[in-house]
Amino acid sequence: MSHEELVRRYEAGGGKLAAANAEGLAVPPSLRTALLTCMDSRIDTFALFGLTLGEVHVLRNAGGVVTDDVIRSLTISQRKLETRDVVVVQHTGCGLTMFSDDDFCEELATEVGMRPPWRTHAFREPALSVRRDMAQLRHDPFLLPETRVRGFVLDTERFVLEEVYLDG
Ligand SMILES: [Zn+2]
Hints:
Layout: H1 2-22, E1 33-38, H2 45-48, E2 56-61, H3 68-81, E3 85-91, H4 101-112, H5 126-139, E4 148-155, E5 160-164
Parallel strand pairs: 1-2, 1-3, 3-4
Antiparallel strand pairs: 4-5
Bound molecules: zinc ion.
Zinc ion is lined by residues 38, 40, 63, 91, 94-96.
């Protein structure tokens, strides 16, 4: 049912609205920033940071964690589309806090007969996960040396951001 609803809304004017919203925007994000956050459907990244279209690259995955594919996107974002800063936002009450990587992979293996080739990046404490990911970004050889990284935990009850410091 649900995919029909998306197509229906597109046909009801979504396509026209999207075209109007993107009119005149350059491909490189004007704030030269990439934002990495969770796919959680409650997080309105544009409202949270007062953004409009054309300003940032928004990368979203389960958890808002640094994966090989995030590195791939950030490298392209920097090398070909002029971004420099990276903002990482993970959050309280995330689905990734509700299981452990080992348990998840074990359940999958039991069900389908093999372990996944990827890790879930499950975490208990979002601040520790953000700090770990910031450290990984800082040391990634493919990102530009002048990359500036900031990390935050979003409290999804009060929608308050708490900054995480790599050296703190
Ligand atoms: Zn989440």
